[in-house]
Amino acid sequence: MSRRCDLTGKGVQTGHLVSHSNRKTKRRFLPNLCNVTLQSEVLKRTVRMRVSANALKSVDHRGGLDAFLRKANADELSPLALELKRQLAKAEKVEAAPAA
Predict the structure, then answer these.
(1) Can you tell me the distance from the alpha carbon of 64 to that of 41, in angstroms, rounded to the nearest whole number?
(2) Once rounded to an integer, what is the mean pLDDT over residues 30-39?
(3) Cβ(9)–Cβ(24) under 8 Å?
(4) CB 5 within 8 A of CB 50
(5) Residue 83, phi then psi, degrees to nearest 5
(6) How far is residue 86's CA from residue 72's CA, in Å, rounded to a whole number?
(7) Where does 9-98 show beta strands of DSSP type E?
(8) Which residue, of 18, 24, 26, 82, is most buried by count of CB atoms within 10 Å of its CB?
(9) How do residues 2-32 score in pLDDT, each as one tens digit?
(10) How far apart are CA 26 and CA 38, in angstroms?
């Protein structure tokens, strides 16, 4: 399992651990990932994802998964989130179409 956020694509970063004597050794900065189940009202289903805590705060701030995906740019999203965004747009188009 990769250490990558399923919504934003945020992953591991590298840097240095710097001691008091200014000696530098390599270290890894891991994202704060949480296993969450998010509800989509438009798709009428739940989606299980591994999301960073920062992205989860953004989802709550924007008003849910549907609003987050609607507002996010395609280049900011991971492949899984892009697929969800496409499904969301397709479902909204079907809902908006007048019933004949």
Answers:
(1) 9
(2) 96
(3) no
(4) yes
(5) -65, -40
(6) 12
(7) 13-18, 24-29, 33-40, 45-52
(8) 82
(9) 899 999 889 999 999 999 999 999 999 999 9
(10) 36
